[in-house]
C-alpha cells in the first residue's frame, strides 16, 4: 500500500451470521511488501478482499501469495470488536483516524472524499472547509444517477429515549445537486435535496434513541448523486453531545464558501 493518496484494504468474512471485518488498513505503508496472518473463526462463509480507492490515482494497493491453512496462525492478528463511541463525539475531518464516522464497505456505490481545497469541478462544491482546513464531500463526476456514498458511526447510548444533540455544517451547491440524508437508529432526522447556494449551512437536530434497541445506536450520513456531475455535497464539523440542543433548527447559513 504505497502512495500519497492510499485508500483502504479490508478482509471480510461473510456468513449466515452477518459480515465481520477481519483486517483493515488505510495507511501508506511504504514501498515494501508486508506479511499478515489472520485466524479465521470457524464458519461456512465467504472471504472477501475489498480495495477502496483513495482521493487520487496515487494509491495502488496489491496482494499476493494468499494461503489458507488448518489451525491457528502462530503470529495471527487478534480479531477484536471495536468499542462503541461514547458521547461527546466530534468529527472535523482534520484527522480521519480520530473521526467516529467511517465509510461503509460493500453496501454503497462509492466513498466520501476528504479534501482541503475547492472540489475539482467548477460550479459545484465548496472552496474551503466550514471550519479548519478539511471537509468530507461526495465527488459526483463519473457516477450514475442515484449512486450513494455512506458514512456511518456507532454511538453508545445506554438510556432509551434520552435526547442527543447533533450539529453539522453542510454544503449543497450545483445545478444538479442530489440529496443528503441523516438517520439515527434507522429513523430519518434530516433530508435535503437540490441546490442550497454556494455557502455552508448549519443543521442542529435533536435525536432520540428508540426504546427497545440495543445500547449501541448507529448514525448514518447518505449522499446521493443527482442528474449530473454538477452536484457535489459536503459536510464538516459533525458533533454529537448529550442532552437537548440550544435553540435547535435545521437550516441556517454559517459561512459563505465563495
UniProtKB/TrEMBL annotation:
It comes from Magallana gigas (Pacific oyster). Residues 1-75, 89-247 form the MAM domain. GO terms for cellular component: membrane. SMART domains: MAM. Gene3D superfamilies: 2.60.120.200. InterPro entries: ConA-like_dom_sf, MAM_dom, MAM_domain-containing. This is MAM domain-containing glycosylphosphatidylinositol anchor protein 2. PANTHER family: APICAL ENDOSOMAL GLYCOPROTEIN PRECURSOR (PTHR23282), MAM DOMAIN-CONTAINING PROTEIN (PTHR23282:SF142). It holds the Pfam family MAM. PROSITE patterns: MAM_2.
Amino acid at each position: 500500500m504505497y502512495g500519497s493518496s492510499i485508500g483502504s484494504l479490508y478482509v471480510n468474512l461473510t456468513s449466515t451470521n452477518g459480515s465481520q471485518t477481519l483486517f483493515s488498513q488505510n495507511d501508506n505503508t511504504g514501498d515494501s511488501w508486508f506479511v499478515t496472518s489472520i485466524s479465521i473463526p470457524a464458519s461456512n462463509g465467504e472471504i472477501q478482499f475489498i480495495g477502496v480507492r483513495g482521493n487520487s490515482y496515487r494509491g495502488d494497493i496489491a496482494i499476493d501469495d494468499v494461503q489458507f491453512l488448518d489451525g491457528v496462525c502462530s503470529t495471527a492478528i487478534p480479531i477484536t470488536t471495536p468499542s462503541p463511541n461514547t458521547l461527546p463525539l466530534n468529527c472535523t475531518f482534520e484527522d480521519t483516524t480520530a473521526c467516529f464516522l467511517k465509510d461503509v464497505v460493500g453496501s454503497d456505490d462509492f466513498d466520501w472524499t476528504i479534501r482541503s481545497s475547492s472540489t475539482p469541478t467548477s460550479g459545484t462544491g465548496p472552496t474551503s472547509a466550514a471550519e479548519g482546513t478539511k471537509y468530507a464531500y461526495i465527488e459526483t463526476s463519473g457516477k450514475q444517477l442515484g449512486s450513494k456514498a455512506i458514512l456511518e458511526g456507532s454511538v453508545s447510548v445506554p438510556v432509551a429515549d434520552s435526547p442527543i444533540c447533533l450539529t453539522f455544517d453542510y454544503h449543497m451547491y450545483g445545478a444538479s445537486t442530489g440529496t443528503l440524508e441523516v438517520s439515527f437508529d434507522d429513523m430519518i432526522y434530516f433530508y435535503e435535496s437540490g441546490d442550497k447556494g454556494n455557502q455552508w449551512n448549519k443543521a442542529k437536530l435533536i435525536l432520540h434513541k428508540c426504546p427497545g434497541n440495543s445500547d449501541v445506536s448507529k448514525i448514518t450520513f447518505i449522499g446521493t448523486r443527482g442528474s449530473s456531475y454538477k452536484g457535489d455535497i459536503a459536510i464538516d464539523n459533525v458533533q454529537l453531545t448529550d442532552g437537548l440542543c440550544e435553540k435547535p433548527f435545521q437550516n441556517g447559513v454559517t459561512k459563505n464558501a465563495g
